[in-house]
Every structure is written in structure tokens, then in C-alpha cells.
Amino acid sequence: MTPIEVVQGDITRQDVDAIVAAANQSLMGGGGVDGAIHRAAGPRLAEAGAAMGPCRPGDAKATPAFDLDPPITHVIHTVGPVWRGGQHDEAEVLASCYRRCLEVADELGVRTLAIPAISTGVYGFPAEKAARIAVTAVRSSPTAVERVRLIAFDRETHDLLAAALAE
Q1: DSSP H/E element including 29
Q2: Catalytic residue among 34, 59, 67, 154
Q3: Which residues are 75's β-sheet partners?
Q4: Pick from 93, 95, 52, 56: which is nearest to 74 by CA?
Q5: Residue 67 among the catalytic residues
Q6: Domain residues for 44?
Q7: Residues 161-166: what's their mean pLDDT?
Q8: Edge-to-edge strand order for the sheet containing 4-8?
Q9: The CATH number of the domain where 116 resides is what?
Q10: What is the number of domains present in the chain?
Q11: Band of pLDDT at residue 119, cut at 50, 70 and 90
């Protein structure tokens, strides 16, 4: 099983091979964590996202990291579900985001990966439920990734991820 760490901090400053952007379908940048990643990586990240075309919810695609500091070499973009009450396969789409990020990381030869709390911001997915899905999906996905770091923007999300990891 891949070791999982929970860290509160800036995903663009992590000592990992690749980071995950919780993106919108256009892959051209947005708010929250995605916006922070795009600002740090520079305008070529949005250009690369636009060139790849749209990304479906639950899927993931990779670009170079552009202006992000080494050792980060790739950004894996995934589109999480918008919470609509839980009756529209949101949990399965969210789990698919984590699985697809690990699959794409494997294709790239990534050894260390940082993933934010996908869909818990403006997309409104309940954070406690999302934390359990994140941990379960990472634990149950076969991968060659040697370390996954779940990144929390705030203390509440950190504590929810840590509690899910302890279960």
C-alpha cells in the first residue's frame, strides 16, 4: 500500500514530482487551488490545457509543470464533481478523480504526488465525506507511486483528512 501523508500548506511548494490541479473542464485555470497552481506555473499552463481540450468529470490529464519550482515536473489536472445532493454519482466521480490521477502518475513515472481536497471548495462536496473518499480511493488503487501527499488548504480540511487516514 502506498504511504499517504496529510499536510496543510501550499500545493505549489511541495517537494514532489507532480501535483494535482482540481480543475474545471476547460483546463485553462479557475479559482481556488487551480488558480494558485496556474499563477505559479505561468501562462503556458493554461495554453497547454486549452490545447488538450476539455476534460470530463472523473478523468485526469497531464501537462508539464512549466514555471513551478523543481522537483515538480508535471501538473495532473482532474475535474471533480459539483455536489448536487449526493444522488448524481458524485461520490463515484470523486473516487474516479483520485484513481485516474494515480493512473496518469504511473504513466508519467511519477514517484511522489501531491493531491488537494478535490471538489471541496466552490464545487461544494461535503469535506468529511470527500476526505473519506480520497483516502479510500488512494488506498485501494494499485499504483507504482511511492508516496501520496494529501494537501489541505486549511486546518479543518487537514483534520478531516487526518481522521479519515486514521480509520
Answers
A1: none
A2: 34
A3: 19, 63
A4: 52
A5: no
A6: 4-166
A7: 99
A8: 4-8, 147-152, 112-116, 18-23, 74-79, 60-64
A9: 3.40.220.10
A10: 1
A11: very high
Residue 57 is placed in which grid cell? Answer: 468529470
Q: What is the CA radius of gyration of the chain?
A: 14
Q: Enter the C-alpha cell of residue 18.
A: 507532480
Q: Is the pTM of this model over 0.85?
A: yes
Q: What is the pLDDT of residues 59-103, one digit of tens each?
A: 999 999 999 999 999 999 999 999 999 999 999 999 999 999 999
Q: In terms of DSSP H, where are the helices of the chain?
A: 32-41, 43-52, 90-108, 127-140, 155-166
Does the structure show a pLDDT above 90 at 34? yes
Region for 136 from its dihedrals, namely left if φ exceeds 0, alpha if ψ lies in -120 to 50, beta otherwise: alpha
Confidence tier at 53 by pLDDT (50, 70, 90): confident
DSSP result, 50-96: HHH----BT-EEEEE-TTSPTT--EEEEEEPPPPSSS-SSHHHHHHH
**What mean pLDDT value characterizes the chain?**
97
User: Torsion angle, CA of 134/137/143/148, rounded to 10 degrees?
Assistant: 20
pLDDT at res. 141: 98
